[in-house]
Amino acid sequence: MIIVMSPSATKENLEKVIKKVESAGLRTHISEGEEVTIVGVIGDQKKIANLEMNMMEGVEKTVRITEKYKLVSRNFHPEDTIVDVDGVKVGGKQIVVMAGPCSVESIEQLREAAKAVKAGGAQFLRGGAFKPRTSPYDFQGLAEEGLKMLRQVADEEGLKVVTEIVDKDDLELVGKYADLYQVGARNMQNFQLLKALGKANKPVMLKRGLSATISEWLNAAEYIMAGGNEQVILCERGIRTYETFTRNTLDLSAVAAVKELSHLPIIVDPSHGTGRWQMVQPMARAAVAAGCDGLIIEVHPHPEVALSDGDQSLTPKNFNRLMEDLGKIAAVMERTV
Amino acid sequence: MIIVMSPSATKENLEKVIKKVESAGLRTHISEGEEVTIVGVIGDQKKIANLEMNMMEGVEKTVRITEKYKLVSRNFHPEDTIVDVDGVKVGGKQIVVMAGPCSVESIEQLREAAKAVKAGGAQFLRGGAFKPRTSPYDFQGLAEEGLKMLRQVADEEGLKVVTEIVDKDDLELVGKYADLYQVGARNMQNFQLLKALGKANKPVMLKRGLSATISEWLNAAEYIMAGGNEQVILCERGIRTYETFTRNTLDLSAVAAVKELSHLPIIVDPSHGTGRWQMVQPMARAAVAAGCDGLIIEVHPHPEVALSDGDQSLTPKNFNRLMEDLGKIAAVMERTV
Amino acid sequence: MIIVMSPSATKENLEKVIKKVESAGLRTHISEGEEVTIVGVIGDQKKIANLEMNMMEGVEKTVRITEKYKLVSRNFHPEDTIVDVDGVKVGGKQIVVMAGPCSVESIEQLREAAKAVKAGGAQFLRGGAFKPRTSPYDFQGLAEEGLKMLRQVADEEGLKVVTEIVDKDDLELVGKYADLYQVGARNMQNFQLLKALGKANKPVMLKRGLSATISEWLNAAEYIMAGGNEQVILCERGIRTYETFTRNTLDLSAVAAVKELSHLPIIVDPSHGTGRWQMVQPMARAAVAAGCDGLIIEVHPHPEVALSDGDQSLTPKNFNRLMEDLGKIAAVMERTV
Amino acid sequence: MIIVMSPSATKENLEKVIKKVESAGLRTHISEGEEVTIVGVIGDQKKIANLEMNMMEGVEKTVRITEKYKLVSRNFHPEDTIVDVDGVKVGGKQIVVMAGPCSVESIEQLREAAKAVKAGGAQFLRGGAFKPRTSPYDFQGLAEEGLKMLRQVADEEGLKVVTEIVDKDDLELVGKYADLYQVGARNMQNFQLLKALGKANKPVMLKRGLSATISEWLNAAEYIMAGGNEQVILCERGIRTYETFTRNTLDLSAVAAVKELSHLPIIVDPSHGTGRWQMVQPMARAAVAAGCDGLIIEVHPHPEVALSDGDQSLTPKNFNRLMEDLGKIAAVMERTV
């Protein structure tokens, strides 16, 4: 940490600052400039993390040098992590694809979707059984009934199941049917849920919050890893900006940023990220070219009758086309789909 | 709902749209313009809320006319709601003030803060016993020990207790000590928590999410009210923008907006909203002038040693000055502090 | 400036960094921590301002300590500046009010507006003769004809004229009729226009850009002052955020921030800042309570037929009510309207 | 346009609305719902564009159905436009690359950069001679001296010149040396400059504003086209969001959006879009995969001594690597580099 003194700080102010730092078991390094004096703080990072100096008289601002997350950091784990989801490797050479409807609606709908998903070459069936919806009057999902359908249909087609968990009390229930827990954007900082997942023995896919910084997102992953569960996959799904043409602004630079800062695999959701099915194909291609490890895509046999998110779902035919495209881009990246 | 057909839509596209609307038990009203045709959808609002038309061929966009929330809407309840928190009325003539430290740290700290808060004229003691923190390595609060201290000290000074709940499992625990549940910004769309609070028999203060629209915020309040708990207070605490000088951008226009759209009381948090103690006083004055029903303010006997949020906390002396100021502005608004 | 070396930086990297700093005529101060080494840069601020270090190998990031603006800074000019606009003092005890229609449409419309504005107690008549509009097909203003009307009507009522300049070629033309140049949000970083206004001998009101930080805004004011024109008034008019209920998000904390960072007067535009006439009155009151030096408000005799911005304009009757309110808040602030 | 009446609107309110629409030479179509009445407005789009209804009593809101831009719209010009820049086609099969330093600093620097740019396979040399800088004390560019160097060095290497114009008075001067005018983000809504460029006989590259919506950007392009200059290229360069890890948030979905809404070519600037040279390569690949028609990239022979934007510039060696990568992605897109 660096403490920047204000130009009007007195010698006494400076002395008090030094005293406070030292009384926290840390050392200081003073650098006197022509206009301002700067105090470097040296020592144990945990102690530094707890140091609050901004209120001291004469302090203009403080600058933190290091991020608080450790386990998710590439500095602490230079090689890429590969997360094994019941035999499917995420973060390795293969770019994994998770696809299916936004919500599980019926066994027929799901089966039709799963066949299309499998035929296109995806590894995972996705589908929401618990839906966090803005309004209490919107369709909230089929709950356990939906989970059962997911498992049954996925097994029929030889697919893995990824589905959202919204309540820590459902850890066992969802874990009974799913291969991969999904934490949605609205729950990215639901720390109780993250802590519970830190104790789970199945991998977790953590979506970026609606307006989460990359740092906050990695700190949220740190909650899961700090609990002992190191099988974490990150998922970029678009952030909230002033633009209204798209539902969110898909931030593909997050892929490159995460690859630089962390060893965890990252996948991209171009369906929620744009909210427009016409944009899913170009953005999925772009995500692979940016270096992502996988994609999660909404596919619905009949998007025009979907109970949620119809306008961002691909038809099976369009999904097939997309997968062909992705294969070619993946090859350039020396990867497979 | 209005369905706007694209200029290139065929007659057949239009017929299918009409058919889908009618098969949902709704009626249509067709308006043919020179460039585009528009389909008005008429009938039961719940059915309309579930209608998804964007994926139909020939549909350019749909426009929803009415908000989904009902119980929080001023249309459905024209008079201001006054929430009674164990005898203290929020939303009435008096502008209530909730004050205290960000975190409960020790009984001495809390008692000193509570005396200052009471002396200044506040009605509520605030203080976090459960702290949702970005990093798992930050101070997470004293939990029940902190709650006990809050209750004890508040009783000594004749103050009410408002404190954050972060887990639905703590409903009873927090309810045992607090007079008013606080839902923090990160949990505004933690729908499991909102549903649990909908069954609680104590009032709830719902903070606006970091990047929540006013509509999403009111829908979150609807979750609580739809569960049966109509004692909801809203709290504006700053939104996330590109500006970095302040911690958040305090959106005082939300006060006027909420007063127009809803009957619920709204209070303002200028401490988190700005993140700079120097700005708390002007922003608190402005909030009262904008028409808010209360304020929640961080006061710490020794902000320079606070375990969290020291730089946005007022000293007792500055809090006193603030309260004097607020009294004068309140008088102009024909209210009291 | 502080240079933070990355944990993996070599001794050689550090030596090159030091060499580059020294070869720019600056001195270094090295602080070796347990994890990272930090290089403080000491010397002439202008030289530091031109130093680019981020690309050097081994450099993790650089942190600038001081802002680049000087003339607008309160550090360099501790007392409040009062700008004299042909006898009307802006930044003094009186809170000035500028009011009138968005666009000048006709002499009748303007005269009716000016009478209302004068009757309400405002000092300035506002009105656009040159309108920067998003679409080339929107009404672009009456140009010199509009300026003449503004001057004539203002003189009839004893008001000053403030109006927007969009082109540096119009400096003389607009200056012939106006008492105060207005630079609109879209031109805040039109540096050619700012430089031209730096040579003008009339005061300038500089609106904040749609997504300008406070620092960028003050630097834009520095362009005008650096040219020799020290008569600058700042104007907060709302920033662009994700919220869509209001046209912009009026950032009243900018008032407190500007008062801390600069000596220049600041006024607030609640009409553009909210885009809804219902919100103008509460936000105007809040702005005065936050400590602003003036307000600029859209008033139109018949808002429902206005050629632009009808939905944010007050009727003369509502303007009168507003001015009464403002007088009371101003009195609390020990100021007058 | 659709006018939504409020639930409490009276019959008289409705009649006045209808009367106002009709008196503007337009027709209405009334759709009475159970809760609200909707008025469709039919007729000449220009008349509708000028209609302001929000202030009328009983009107809740209005919804515009069609965008105001025409010439840039794909509806009015379904085929892709190919802009010919002195023989180099932008928007055709070849993905064009513009590269060079942020600022022109000296003939040696520029020549070294140009050789690298040419060797890598780019078609254009970029470099700023007029720099719009946040602070008046930052390096402002070499002006005509810089333009001359650009032309000379580009001619030596057989490259085209693209450079920024910041002042309409420089139209002839910049046009004398450049093949393609660049309008920077800060000037996207400098309508005087856009109008002047509408009269120019050379093509224009229009960068997206820092917080411009796609609609505003296309309307800005309409200003140029409405003036008679149909040779317009769009350039996505990142938008301003709350994220601070990157300099801007590169919005690659804008590529897909522009391709849907407009026939104009679009190129991408991953250097300004991310502000970090490490991210330029993945984002450039992603941009091509998203469907862009070109890239503009900062290349500096010695980024560590650059006068501006050193941390986002590629070395010649990294630029070469990038170009190899792009060739492979382009091939998948059935294009060339």
From TrEMBL, chains A, B, C, D:
Gene3D superfamilies: Aldolase class I (3.20.20.70), Phospho-2-dehydro-3-deoxyheptonate aldolase, domain 1 (3.30.70.1140). The keyword Transferase applies. Keywords: Transferase. GO terms for biological process: aromatic amino acid family biosynthetic process. This is 3-deoxy-D-arabinoheptulosonate-7-phosphate synthase. It comes from the Bacteria. Residues 1-67 form the DAHP synthase ferredoxin-like domain. Residues 87-324 form the DAHP synthetase I/KDSA domain. It holds the Pfam family DAHP_snth_FXD. It comes from Selenomonas ruminantium. InterPro entries: Aldolase_TIM, Class-I_DAHP_synthase, DAHP1/KDSA, DAHP_snth_FXD, DAHP_syn_2. GO terms for molecular function: aldehyde-lyase activity; transferase activity. NCBIfam families: DAHP_synth_Bsub (TIGR01361), PRK08673.1 (NF006421), PRK12595.1 (NF009239).
